[in-house]
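**Folding the chain**
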Amino acid sequence: MPRALSFASLFALILGSTPMIQAATAEPGAPLFNADGYRITLYRSPTPERIAGAQIVSTEQLQALLNQRPQPVLIDVYRRQWLQGRFIEDEPHVNLPGSHWLANTGDGELTPRWMEYLTLNLRALTDGHQDTPLVFYCRADCWLSWNAIKRASALGYSHLYWYRDGLDAWQAAGLPVEPAQPEPLR
């Protein structure tokens, strides 16, 4: 007997598969990771205290990095709904000053179009230099930045940092933020 579709699954079928239309909760017994090792559900849950290929940085360590040369490229991977060929601004978003918002690139499953968005933006932000320091972040307890680092490492980037507690820690420290818009998806 076929299993009934959840509301989220039905919604995704009607509107088409996009990174924003993925279940926020997991079905009991459903895998948390895909075959390639990317987290595919329950993105807002406790994250590991280490990640292969990157160094975790605290707010204080990130501030020190931002005073070094070359200065690292800050990459926010927070999600933004994508519908009918455009980002939907459902709520205002802020990020660390100077950040580049590569929305939805931390999802566990990326279509070729979203993977190209990540690849082309990383290449542009680093002028093609894979040793450029990159700092990925999202929110606290968010697997999206973990996935994005894993992906950047697979693309050959070698100087990676994970600001694990992300925007939440930055704001808790009383540090400035600025309004954000995702880099355009062309």
Remarks:
- Helices lie at 7-15, 59-66, 112-125, 143-154, 166-172.
- Residues 1-24 have pLDDT under 50 and may be disordered.
